[in-house]
Amino acid sequence: MTAADGGAKHVTQRGLWFEEFEIGTVYEHRPGRTITEADNTFFTTLTMNTQALHLDAAWSATQPGFGGQRLVNSMLTLSTIVGLSVAQLTQGTLVANLGFHDIAFPAPMFAGDTLYGETECTGKRLSKSRPGEGIVDLTHIGRNQDGVIVARASRSTLVRVRPEGE
């Protein structure tokens, strides 16, 4: 604190240190994100995914199963639920993603749907090979505006241990 700021307390947004993660805790990430047609088209073309179910409204209208609607690219859904967690869980404390597994998309997302994320800490341990870091296992869940699970993915992350004096 300085005289110039009137003694105000300063807080910097950051994720959780390894010690702050609690196994079994579900962290809810708000606000959600409404996915637009532009989001879906941009992401799909940016990633070179030419699947007509994401890009071609006329073709999709002739297909059974999803009411003739185009589907939101599942990789956009996955990226968004992980992204929703960053500010709350890993901003500035994540060292690396170690891997994703058990990825599923049990229900479709459509343009105009709002995606909400939550993350459960499912395990953690100190790294044996990297002092000052620990492995945290997370399960990300995405729900639409009706509470329907549209995505689920587990991942292992490498997270910094709280530095002395923090």
Automatic annotation (TrEMBL):
For this entry, the protein name equals MaoC-like domain-containing protein
What protein family is recorded?
Answer: Belongs to the enoyl-CoA hydratase/isomerase family.
The residue stretches assigned to a coiled coil in this entry are: none
Q: Tell me where in this chain the MaoC-like domain is found.
A: 22-140
